[in-house]
Amino acid sequence: FEAALLANPEEEKATQGLLAIAADPAHREAAVRVLLAAYAVTDDWLRALELTEHRLAASKDDGERVQILGEAARLAEQRAGDLHAALDYVRRAFELAPSDTDLEGHLFRLTERTDQWRPYAETYRRVLEALDEPTPHDVPLAARLRVRLGAALENHLDDARGALTAYLRAAADAPSDLEACLAATRLAGQSHRWEA
């Protein structure tokens, strides 16, 4: 199949054969590599996008998975014009690499454009659950993520109680984090919840 597809990247029987082979974990990586090369030659971005789950299954580590999900997000957003699919890919990537501020910025921009604040907040909750007992190295990250979660809850989901909880936890985890402390103080004052 590989030789046939490389000789003629539009050969449908070879493509179908390699897709069948890609379902087999033992041969997935090689089949995906050949298919991606053929799709690149023919600029068949839709089929390349459809390979995303096979590519993820063949990937070896989270760094590679983040790269694959980022590529899929770009294709979904820029070529397919599907902001919701792009957002889903970015959310999945962010769960694997929550310290990546570029990825976090992309997540925020897509969320603004799609107005999908509940899934945004759920993504942050899942990431924070994974960091439930942050190491000293992860404390600033967890505090920043809690502040972002609090802002989404407060400004987009009308959940002042949940926002205050997120801000207070951020301030407790990182008392030197000025943004977290100010947000907790501001919202506690607005809601008259000084006992929090």
Distance between the termini: 65 Å
Separate helix tally: 12
Annotation, overall tally of beta strands: 0
Please tell me the overall pLDDT. 91
What structural category characterises the helix and strand content? mainly alpha
Question: Which key features would you list for this structure?
Answer:
mainly alpha, elongated, 196 residues
Task: Give a written overview of the molecule.
With 196 residues, this protein is mainly alpha-helical. The chain is built from 12 helices and no strands. Helix 6 runs antiparallel to helix 7. The longest helix has 18 residues. It is elongated, with a radius of gyration of 21 Å. The termini are far apart.
Write a brief caption for the model.
With 196 residues, the protein is mainly α.
Break the fold down into its secondary structure elements and pairings.
Elements: H1 2-7, H2 12-22, H3 28-42, H4 45-50, H5 52-58, H6 62-79, H7 83-96, H8 101-114, H9 117-130, H10 139-156, H11 160-173, H12 178-191
